[in-house]
Every structure is written in structure tokens, then in C-alpha cells.
Amino acid sequence: MQMMQEFPLPPNAVEFSETVRKRLEDVKSAGGTRETVTVDWNGQALHCEVIECSISSVFYNPGTHRIRAQRSHDPVKDKALAADPWAGPSQEYLQFLLKADPADPNRRDADFDKLKESLEQFGQNDPGLITFNGILVNGNTRAAALRELGRQTMRVGVLPESFTWEDINAVELALQLRRDHRRDYSYINRLLAMEEQAGLGRTPDAIAKDFRVRTSTYHQERWILGTIREQIKRSASSGGAGLRLVDFEDHQEKLKELHRAYEKLASVDPDRADVLKELRMAAIVMGFAKTDVRHIDESFRDRYLSRVMPVGFAGPAGEQAAVVVPGLGGVTLPGSSSAVSAARALNDKVLRAKAIVVAPGAAASDQERKQAQEVVREAREAFDKAIDTAGRDARLKKRKQMAPARIADACADIDQSVVELVQARASRSLDEEALDEAVIKLRESLRKLAQQAARGTTTPGDGVAWLIEAVALETSG
């Protein structure tokens, strides 16, 4: 579990604090109406005085939830940021991420440009929020936009001097979860914020309430983050390449559907659920669409994928040996089934190859990258063919089930009409002529149904046989 990180004070923190103290005194002594910004702190309203502050003297918050997942975009810069968050390169990396698309930091975020345009046209409507030492708690993205516009100052509320990093994180989270907040956290950053709250010892019910979700949704989100972390760990190669949190930013709905399908199947057959999970995660990592991933079920590998996957793609995978449980006197648990092991081996190969493909230039050689690209290409082509076949089978199955399903719906409607007929007769409000016309239409519909049901079958079942006989009697009569 990722715990909340605390950072040292930024350089010139003492001098900045003195400047802030003087500015606050100037605001108080000026008289008149003073501007404040209200934040929620531990369930209480905290009113912070607003001052004008030099943008060049404040620091981006290295612990902000807004870009926590995106920090993994460049592992080398992220490591340097953790070591010295206030250094020039670290602050430049934070500024780069604040301007970047959360799902692909290599692209500039269109929402950032909209914010910049709004600030240029209308100025700063709402104040940001800083610590007494000059760390931006709220308004990091606005500061980046104002700096790009060449502005020299920004309005900021000032948090109490006694605030700790735990207080800072609590305030930032409360601001983000306001219903009127203009820009939500990205999906992975929400998951990380939930994880951090759990690390502080808060209950699932309390966290779910703060994030305005059901407790079951909170548990789903924790399962998803755990699964993502597992995939990242398994993707790591000896050369240091590995998938990053940001690589899963665009897969929210696919991951939620995976969780629902996994939980439903795991209650019946845990091994088949694990097979489903491995195969769907491989497809998700390769970037298949949600509608494609839905065609991958627990039988997908045996029925479709094994026919088109290159021989020996993931190597042989037999049943794993039994696992000895430590401390229980030699008690053992059965290992994974051969189906689970095979699916896991396939997914591992895809994970490691994809990690090399998306890794920064120095993390893999050109030869390694070329080999990885070939692995992903082979896997994607095989999955694409298998998904196409599975989709055709699903559409055929749906067509086969459509007529019986519609008849079942019609039966339900007729059952309901019986209830309403009784009620209408009891209240003497029945339209006899309308009822007679509707029954005549029903008779004609049953005739058509009987004609089609009789075609192509020499031994009809009891239901179809009754329908054919009933219509024949009605016609002959």
C-alpha cells in the first residue's frame, strides 16, 4: 500500500514565511472587506486570508494527487523528484505533467489550454491555496498556466503555519471532492487517493462517503488498483523496463467490467475466474476496445485463441506444484491449474513486451524494442482473430435466442393483461370492442408464428406441437 509521503521544507522557506506574515498583516491593517477562501479541514470550515503572491516564489506540490500517477511517466525523473522535489529539474517535470494529457503525458492536455485561455481572457476568478512555506496546495495547474502567460503574481489563500503534510493532503482532497470542482482527478489518481486514505486508517464506509460512491464501489476500486500494481510488477524486466500507472489511465470501464465478471465467476470456479482475468488483462494492456474485451470469457483461450496463437508463444505451462503454507506443519495447498498457468504465462509475455515497447529510450536497446514489438504484434493479431470469431458466435447465439426471448416477453405482457382485465371488469371500465380487436390481432400473430415454427422441423417439441395443433384446429373450425 502506498503511504503518504512527507517532503522537507523548500529552500528559502523561512524568508518566504516572513514575507507571507507581513502580507497578512498588511491585509488586516488595510481595513475594509478582506477576501478569504474557505476550505474543509477535518469536517470544519477553515477561512484562509487571501494575499497577492509572486508566482516565481512558490513551488508546485510534489505530493499533489492531480498528477501522482503521471509521475511514473519517466521513472528517472520521478526518482530525482522524490530525492529533491524543489530542485529546478524536479519542478520543471511537475510543470510538464500539469500541462500534459493524463492518459498520455507525451501529449499536451486540451483542458490545460482551455484553462489558459480562460485565465488570459477573464483573469484569475478563484484564489489558489498555499502553505506558509510557499507550497501550492490548490492551484498548481493555474500557476503553470499563469507562468506560461507571463503573469508575475497570483491570488492565494494561506493555510495556517502549523499545518502538517497530513493536513495539507486532507485539505487538497476535500477541495477536489467538492461537487462544484471544475476539474476532476484522473481515474488512477482517484484510486491512489483512496489508497492513501485507507493507509491513514480510515474505514471503507468513511472513504466511500467522502468520494461519494457506494462502499461496494470503493472495494471494486481497491481491487482494480491492486490488480494494476500486480500487472506492473509482473511486467518488470531485468533491464528496468516496466509498465507504469499512467499506462492504465484510459481503461477505467474495461477494468470495472473485468472486476464484475471476475467476482461473479470466482464464486463458482476460482480457476476459471483467474483464466478470465489473465486473458482480459492481456487484451487491455494491448489496447483492445471495451466491446472487444467483452468477448473474452473463461473459455476464450480453448475455444478461439489456441487455434490462432503461434505455437509455443508463451512456452509450455503445466500444473504448478503444491504450495507449502508456512507455520502450519507442512500443510499444502494445490497449485494453479494448467489452464491458469498457461493463461498467466501468456499474459506475462505480453506484459513484459508491452513494457519494453512503451519504455523511455534508455530503458531498452533497439534490438530489445524490435523483438518486443514483434511479440505484441503476434499476440495482438491472434487476439484480434480470436475476438472476431468469438464475436460472430456471440451474434449468432443472440439471433438464436432472440425469438424465444421475445415470446417470453409477450407471455409476461399477456400475464399482466390478465390482471388488468380482471381489474377493469371489477370497475366496469373495460372497453370490450378494443379487447376484441386486440385478441383478433393476437390470433393472427399466433397463426404466423405457427407457420414459421412448423417449417424445417419433423419432431417439434411439446410447446411448438401444441401451437401448430391449436392453430390447425382453429383454422379448420
Task: Write up this protein.
By secondary structure, the protein is an alpha+beta fold. The termini are far apart. It is extended. Helices cover 58% and strands 8% of the residues. It is built from 17 helices and 9 strands. A hairpin with a 2-residue loop joins strand 1 and strand 2. Residues 317-323 have low confidence and may be disordered. Helix 7 (187-199) crosses helix 9 (215-235) and helix 11 (270-285) packs parallel to helix 14.
Estimate the helix proportion, in percent.
55-70%
Mean pLDDT: 87
The general outline is: extended
Q: Report the strand count.
A: 9
Portion of residues in beta strands equals 5-15%
Integer-rounded radius of gyration:
31 Å
What is the ordering of alpha helices and beta strands? HEEHHEEHEEHEHHHHHHHHEEHHHH
Count of alpha/pi helices = 17
- Uncertain segments are 317-323
Largest sheet descriptor? 5 strands, mixed
User: In angstroms, what separates the terminal alpha carbons?
Assistant: 78 Å
With strands numbered from the N-terminus, the spatial order across the biggest sheet is 1-2-7-5-6
Question: What structural class do the secondary elements suggest?
Answer: alpha+beta
